[in-house]
Amino acid sequence: MQEFSGARAMEYLRYQCALGPRIPGSPGNRALQDTLLARADQLGLEGRRGCFTATSPLTGDPMPVCNVVITITGTGDGPSLWLGAHFDTRPVCDHDPDPLLRSQPLPGANDGASGVAVLWQVMEIAAADRPPRDVVLLFLDGEDSGRSGDPEGFCLGSAHLVEHWHDFGSLLPDEPPQGMILLDMVGDAQLRIPQEGYSLAHAPDWTAKVFDRAAALGLSALDQVPGGAVYDDHIAFLRAGIPAVDLIDFDYPPWHTTGDVPDECSAGSLEQVGKLILDLIYKP
To answer: What does the CA dihedral 232, 234, 239, 240 come to, rounded to 10 degrees?
Structure first.
């Protein structure tokens, strides 16, 4: 099996940022969808796109939201593993220290591109050396277009995906997975990922398994201590009874500012998370 390369993941992170804002419905958002699906096709993987129209919590306007799901068929049986990351970016930098910059779109290096960068390389490695069970990659849209103080206005893509899980033509496999792992803000150069509060409360065994594996691998960026609760894309899966853990470092000063750029991220951080995910894929 090919080893995970943090340097390669950083290339994918920078590529996404070079597309510009990936706000739902924007050219950059669509270009990233197309790129991921084209790469999956090149690798011989099944990739599907599912779009719907939501109402933007920020503007009240219709907003296209498109999830992309790519399946890596494994060599054996057993419950699949679902891995997720949001690929959209926030339309505004509402936490920027400069009020004049708060209407600017978020660059989204850590908050958006980092999780996608890890899953992108995982996709390439697992396509070349098929894992022992199916792995489903969930690239989620509409995560970051909500209004501050209204959590239900966030995570629109994941909520819709899970709501229509068992519908005809659903992007998700009908059978539930062993668990779901969400990667969000995993590229911080000073990475420290505690055990997110909702994950710990509602999927304690799954959370413990993921963090125990990180400890066994000597991955210092993951800290087996309770962290704060973060409303994120894993919530929809938890509500559906799917064990889900959110790997997120929310202690990130450039969060929702114009400073969320690639230079705030590091190949070493991405590599630690990538190594963990590969180990969980190949050693269920």
So the answer is: 150
